[in-house]
Amino acid sequence: MSRSGDNPGSAVAAGSPAPGEPVFLAVGKLRRPHGVKGELLMEVLTDFPERLKPGMTLYTEAEQRPLVLRSVRGHKDGLLVALEGCHTPEQAGELRNLVLVVPSAGSPRLPEGEYYQYQLIGLRVTSSAGQVLGRVTEILTTGAHDVLVVRGEMGPEILIPMADPFVGEIDLTKGEMVVHPIPGMLPGEES
Q: Which stretches in the chain have pLDDT values below 50?
């Protein structure tokens, strides 16, 4: 249902931007320098690595400093990238561990029933029985399914797998999501 990549901020923390604030999607994390020409190994955080092309402007997550891709090529499980103004291993080393993001405005359209994580953060969640459970505050990326973290005004957080048996209707226009909890999933219920 949701895409694990292209999430706002880093892969660990997700948040909802303030109204009017642009949304940036993480596409990669720079790891270590590679070779002597300023290339870096980049861990891919996007489901669409093919859109990363020379001449494209990426931004650093924290300060949103622009960095222009000089070259991109596949390497094992990641990519080797070269950035304009970065021509030595020492310059590349200064960029180590930076998360690179792109504005969400140019994001590829997803198939029906799939959503970017930032679209789900903040949705009001109700059960199929009409009980208001809270809002999606975070999405945990796991091996099998993403897991929605839903927090209400009172009570503990609720973890809901982002899978068809548990997630019903999602209406981004209304900002709402209906879920089908199983017995024992909600606080205070017995399994």
A: 1-5, 7-16, 18-20
